[in-house]
Design goal:
alpha/beta
């Protein structure tokens, strides 16, 4: 819905245009937006060119800022306009002096006494041809789109550098809340499920050994750990810039989170992504990954994570998020085997595939097809709006039971427990360092 510029809409128009210019990189303050509203009310422009020359002296302070201003102005008021189109300077001495106080509109022509121009075309009383776009009333959206609306539908692989800076601020507002779990320690509670004998006996010392007051306790609860594994190979490089900001937002959100990236090797970035300066954290993380935009070895990366971190407690009961397109260059059977190991440790596995948003997407890639049976959710992370589905998948508490994959022979006796016949992946694996626990067998 569009309407002509009205005095009632000047405040919203000035604030929205100033926000767009500020997000694009211009030093626009609230004072300049208020000055533009006052200038628009004073000049009362009726064409786009008049509005352009009303806004340009207010918001542009140097010639280097002019291309950015033209691009934003064209995107707001008419996407069909060329950003670098020459609209003419009404104050240039090379042009004839304007007949009125308003700057002449684009394409103004000299009009004869009979109402025609030099080419014989009939002109309107305002001096413009009837089909001239500049003679029409200014049509602007009643509510200019905000940052979330503009970047929500745009794919991550098509973002510009200035839009990536805006995305970093929007990613910081994303809530990645994991389900809560019962902890081992207990806390004092009025309606606890168990009696706290230690507190009761300690309090009975004041009453001669008689337990007068009963104290109850219950188990503590806390958020589950969030583990993110991001693919930074060559096929994921256009999306890796935005996903790296997602990893940084998750680490700085307060939720216990661990961040990893992988291409041909696994790199831990939790410490590099920490700190108060998010831009510096992103730069440290990018410099810490030596295999950026290289080959893809998902199976080896998952094996390295399971051996070094997963079996030592990091993935136990955690929500694991894998951001990859599933293009595996090695054997997909290794991906299936390591995903099966990870599924036994993790509470939930969410796979984020930026190509899943395509209408005719099918998991035909070798790594994706091998990992899909062990995933609890498959979401598309190709734009900002798809991050809401990711947040819902992370916060989900119900875990769908996987379908049985074992084929039974007719007449054969079924085992009473699912783990009665251990597979190769279920058998103990030696510790990577070579040192295992003192008791029990750690090798097959």
């Amino acid at each position: 819905m569009t309407a002509a510029v009205d005095i009632r809409d000047l405040t919203e128009l000035a604030a929205a245009l100033g926000r767009r210019l500020r997000d694009a990189g211009l030093p626009v303050t609230h004072e300049r937006s208020a000055r533009f509203a006052q200038a628009t009310a004073l000049v009362a422009p009726r064409t786009r060119t008049e509005l352009y020359w009303t806004a340009r002296p207010v918001f542009v302070s140097s010639e280097a800022q002019l291309p950015t201003f033209d691009r934003v102005f064209a995107a707001v008021f008419d996407p069909r306009l060329e950003p670098d189109e020459d609209r003419g300077d009404p104050y240039s001495p090379a042009l004839d002096p304007p007949t009125s106080e308003r700057p002449p509109s684009r394409g103004a022509r000299s009009v004869d006494r009979d109402g025609t121009d030099a080419d014989g075309r009939a002109m309107s009383p305002s001096g413009s041809a009837p089909g001239d776009d500049s003679a029409r009333e200014i049509e602007v959206p009643l509510a200019l789109a905000s940052d979330e609306e503009r970047l929500g539908e745009k794919r991550f692989d098509a973002l510009e550098p200035d839009e990536l800076a805006q995305l970093r601020r929007l990613m910081a507002q994303l809530e990645l809340a994991t389900p809560r779990r019962r902890m081992r320690r207990a806390r004092r509670a009025r309606n606890g499920e168990r009696l706290d004998l230690r507190r009761i006996l300690r309090a009975s010392l004041r009453t001669g050994g008689e337990p007068i007051k009963l104290v109850r306790k219950c188990r503590r609860t806390g958020p589950r750990r969030l583990v993110l594994l991001c693919d930074i190979s060559g096929s994921m490089e256009p999306y890796a810039r935005a996903y790296l900001q997602l990893l940084g937002s998750a680490v700085a959100s307060g939720t216990p989170a661990e961040a990893f990236v992988f291409a041909t090797r696994l790199t831990r970035l939790t410490r590099a992504l920490g700190g108060r300066n998010p831009e510096a954290a992103i730069q440290r993380a990018a410099a810490a990954a030596p295999d950026w935009s290289s080959g893809t070895r998902i199976g080896q990366a998952l094996k390295a994570f399971n051996d070094r971190y997963g079996r030592r407690g990091m993935a136990r009961g955690a929500v694991v998020v894998i951001l990859s397109d599933g293009w595996e260059r090695a054997d997909p059977a290794l991906v299936a085997r390591e995903m099966e190991r990870l599924a036994r440790l993790a509470h939930r596995i969410v796979w984020v595939n930026p190509r899943a948003g395509a209408p005719r997407f099918e998991p035909r890639a070798g790594g994706m097809a091998a990992a899909l049976p062990h995933c609890d959710a498959l979401v598309s992370g190709h734009n900002l709006n798809a991050m809401d589905a990711l947040a819902e998948a992370i916060a989900a508490t119900a875990v769908a039971s996987p379908e049985p994959t074992r084929t039974s022979t007719p007449g054969a006796a079924e085992p009473s427990w699912a783990s009665a016949d251990p597979t190769e992946a279920q058998r103990p694996v030696p510790m990577p360092s070579g040192y295992g626990p003192k008791r029990g067998r750690t090798t097959p």
